[in-house]
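Fill in residues.
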């Protein structure tokens, strides 16, 4: 039986970072929350677990990212079939739906890329920008911003 104070058992432990008291198994734990100088692995994103039980088939486990991807794919198809405004509007709404899913669900599978805040902010900003641009597309925009024409110096007009 090995003792914690035995010099032979302590010789096997190589310490590169600040450590605290050993855990239950006798392995030293990091005492600081600071990142190490060299990263040796990548942490799974928060919420990056499975969205369905482990015994479910693979598509069912990743339904959030598949739903967002399917909506984006449909939007791209509509855009290619000469329905630009509706297609890009669908793409933006799919990204906004991804932000809502990331906010509401604890596990979203591969829809989780970074931290929850970063994912929600990125999906929201990109989705909102695409929706607004889809609504302002010419001719006959659905959304007219009055000061936008004054702020653009090189606007081409018919008048």
């Amino acid at each position: 039986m090995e003792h914690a104070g035995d010099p032979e058992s302590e010789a096997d432990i190589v310490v590169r970072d600040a450590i605290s008291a050993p855990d239950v198994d006798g392995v030293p734990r990091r005492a600081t929350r600071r990142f190490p100088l060299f990263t040796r692995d990548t942490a799974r994103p928060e919420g990056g677990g499975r969205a369905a039980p482990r015994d479910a088939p693979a598509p069912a486990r990743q339904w959030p990212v598949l739903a967002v991807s399917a909506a984006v794919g449909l939007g791209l198809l509509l855009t290619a079939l000469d329905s630009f405004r509706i297609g890009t509007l669908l793409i933006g709404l799919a990204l906004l739906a991804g932000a809502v899913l990331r906010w509401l669900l604890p596990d979203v599978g591969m829809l989780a890329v970074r931290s929850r805040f970063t994912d929600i902010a990125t999906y929201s900003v990109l989705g909102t920008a695409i929706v607004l641009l889809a609504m302002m597309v010419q001719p006959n925009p659905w959304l007219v911003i009055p000061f936008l024409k004054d702020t653009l110096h090189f606007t081409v007009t018919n008048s």
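DSSP finds six helices and two strands in the chain.
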